[in-house]
Specification:
Blueprint lengths: L8 E5 L10 E5 L8 E14 L3 E19 L2 E17 L2 E3 L4 H4 L4 E6 L7 E6 L8 H8 L23 E3 L2 E6 L8 E5 L2 E10 L2 E22 L2 E20 L4 E17 L2 E15 L2
Antiparallel strand pairs: 1-2, 3-4, 3-16, 4-5, 5-6, 5-7, 7-8, 9-12, 10-11, 11-13, 12-13, 13-14, 14-15, 15-16
């Protein structure tokens, strides 16, 4: 799940028995403060092998700075800025330059999120400057990745009064996302099972370790540029994703996220059917 480093308030409850095994935790977004900023590093990787072309790998990394601007109608509004943008795109051993990366760096956009209900992932994005609308899909690719980012309920509505060992499930259906910069939008559905694995002391603070495993069904649209030609690969892939999250319990802060997915399915390219395996990995870390 792609996560923005927003200030998460973990409501920490202790049961009447005062037994550590019965400590209860709720993962709910608290009141946002206008002008508050959060910073995290982010990296995405996707790789696959195409018949007739060879091994394809897209790797991107950046640091994101999010500033809360307040509410606008039914939306929370953020100003998001990418810095330290790097891309390493390889097609059959040849490096492919990303025409959008340099233009996006230090160039902010507005990110709108619904402020109520569970339908609280990124709703839409607007460039700050009108002349930057040609970067819209690039911004969407950066902030609307494979992992949906829920704000008010980062782990769903059932992540309330849970104890160590508790598990709960979500059902995320037909969410829009972008595989990589330059590709059209894809759709993804998943049924993650989330488990509060443990809470332990680490460097003087309590850290919650949260496991994540899910079944994916993706309707993928991936653009591959090679030798001056743009190939579009479309098809459905299914597979399993798993990973984990770390949270500072007492500080109420996100620390890190890693999710890895292995997918496979039948695709079409240039009117021909191809079978393809797809590897994806997303890593987010709070900037200390």
């Amino acid at each position: 799940m792609k996560v923005f480093n927003l200030r998460i308030i973990l409501l920490f409850f202790v049961s009447l028995s005062f037994c550590s095994e019965d400590e209860k935790y709720s993962f709910i977004l608290g009141e946002l403060v206008v002008g508050e900023k959060s910073v995290q590093t982010h990296s995405d990787e996707i790789s696959f092998t195409l018949p007739g072309i060879g091994y394809v790998e897209y790797v991107s990394s950046f640091t994101s700075v999010f500033e809360f601007l307040g509410s606008e109608g039914e939306f929370w509004k953020f100003k998001a800025t990418l810095i330290d943008v790097e891309n390493n795109n390889i097609v059959n051993g040849i490096e492919i330059l990303d025409q959008y990366a340099a233009a996006m760096e230090d160039n902010p956009c507005y990110v709108y999120v619904k402020s109520s209900g569970y339908d609280d992932e990124v709703h839409h994005i607007e460039p700050v400057k009108e002349e930057d609308y040609y970067l819209l899909e690039a911004f969407e690719s950066a902030y609307m990745g494979v992992q949906p980012n829920h704000f008010r309920y980062p782990f769903g509505r059932d992540a309330v009064d849970v104890t160590k060992g508790d598990s709960w499930s979500l059902n995320l259906d037909s969410l829009k996302f972008y595989v990589n910069m330059g590709s059209p939008s894809s759709l993804g559905s998943s049924k993650p099972k989330i488990t509060l694995k443990k809470v332990k002391e680490k460097r003087g603070r309590k850290v919650a370790y949260i496991d994540y495993i899910t079944e994916y069904t993706f309707d993928l649209r991936i653009a591959v540029n090679f030798l001056g030609e743009r190939r579009l690969i479309t098809g459905q892939a299914n597979g399993i994703g798993d990973g984990g999250f770390k949270w500072d319990v007492e500080g109420g802060e996100f620390l890190s996220q890693v999710v890895v997915a292995n997918l496979a399915g039948d695709f079409e390219m240039d009117g021909e059917k191809v079978y393809m395996k797809v590897f994806m990995r997303t890593i987010n870390k709070k900037v200390k």
